[in-house]
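Exercise 7. Given the encoded structure of a 123-residue chain, write a plausible sequence.
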């Protein structure tokens, strides 16, 4: 149990003479900014009509191993962001947040199917 307090997870500079936590300026680990298993990331972008060539290019930049050694797409990692990479596409089908949501929708559909929940339920 003591291990969980041995390192800093999220941090922010405190304001002088403030008794409450800072409201802004928090630094988060990249894992907290969004991860998608490669399977859902790929299916989501394919559902938008992204070509295999563009998909491979994006994957080369945003897919890395997570803390458990699994290949996942990071929304942001070491200064590289999915949103910026998406914005550099010459003919992107839609905006970056919608493209990321397409992958999330694939993950949600898979979970709903796995648990036997039918229908189109959006949270």
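Solution.
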């Amino acid at each position: 149990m003591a291990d969980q307090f041995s390192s800093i997870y999220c941090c922010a500079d405190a304001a002088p003479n403030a008794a409450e936590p800072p409201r802004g300026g928090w630094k988060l680990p990249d894992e907290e900014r969004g991860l998608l298993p490669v399977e859902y990331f790929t299916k989501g972008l394919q559902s938008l009509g992204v070509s295999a060539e563009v998909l491979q290019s994006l994957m080369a930049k945003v897919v890395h191993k997570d803390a458990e050694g699994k290949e996942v797409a990071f929304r942001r990692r070491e200064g590289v962001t999915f949103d910026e990479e998406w914005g550099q596409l010459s003919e992107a089908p839609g905006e970056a947040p919608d493209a990321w949501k397409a992958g999330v929708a694939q993950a949600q559909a898979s979970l709903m199917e796995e648990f036997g929940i039918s229908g189109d339920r959006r949270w």
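Remark. Residues 29-114 form one domain. Students should compare their own answers with the one above.
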